[in-house]
Amino acid sequence: MTSVLHTEGLGKKYGRRWALSDCDLDIPAGHVVGLVGPNGAGKTTLLHLAAGLLSPTAGAISVLGGVPGDGPAQLAKVGFVAQDTPTYAGLTVAEHLRLGARLNPRWDDALARDRLARLGLDPDRRAGKMSGGQRAQLALTLGIAKRPDLLILDEPVAALDPLARREFMQGLMEAAAEHELSVLFSSHLISDLERACDYLIVLVDSRVRVAGEVEELLSTHHRLTGARRDPDRLPAGQHVVAASHTDRQTTLTIRTDAPIHDPSWTVSQVGLEDLVLAYMSTRAHDRSARPALEVQR
Length: 297
Hints:
- The chain has about 300 residues and is α/β, with parallel strands linked by helices.
- The chain has helices spanning about 45-50, 70-75, 95-105, 110-120, 130-145, 160-180, 190-195, 215-220, 270-280; strands at about 5-15, 15-30, 30-35, 60-65, 80, 150-155, 180-185, 200-205, 205-215, 220-225, 240-245, 250-255, 265-270, 295.
- The longest helix is centred in the middle third of the chain and has 18 residues, at about 160-180.
- The termini are close together.
């Protein structure tokens, strides 16, 4: 199966600063992929590279087997919705659809009109007169009606209220299932990741810290709690992601494929929020000797 996104040693440098470095990913098609990390981690840079809006400084990237942005055929395969869910304030909803039809060879006008009707968006209403949630739904409709194989969204719900955010994410999940879309979206909100994604990428300090199917990641990460001790004394194969200590107690988040037999530890599963925060809470130099985990089928 062709990877929806494949990178090898991918890097992007602005002046002397690497916004993305040594990025190795191989994401199979058919997933809703959540991309998460702190501000400045490289999320937008990675998405812009995938959309063909930027060129790499180092390494290689392919999207759906082709070079991002390389000609009309490749551009037609990828839909992109930027962080501010861009629409034209002076254009009506209907005019947006006509523009979409002119610019996109795969355009599905019936899909767009049906979706907007279900959302109750007036075709004659100008985008500048719409709420933030309505503009976001219009932008998502334009991206879906393009009929891409991959839909990329950069923080699509960052400015929306909780209800509009929930409606947007619900619409995204329905579209991904109905039209067999691969989706790659960034978000700061763990609730969005839990609700929508089945594949996760965590970026920290411009590097991939963990990537894989959510179900497998959760099954291979554990929290250990016990009497205070040195984490370096764990058995081989138990990789420490994060550690905290009190005078008497040690709490570790670890990753391992093997059973944990040491009875001195209390072992519990981690949730998605715990997993993400564990990787985000430890800076790159603290884990330089530990390989990033990539779990794939």
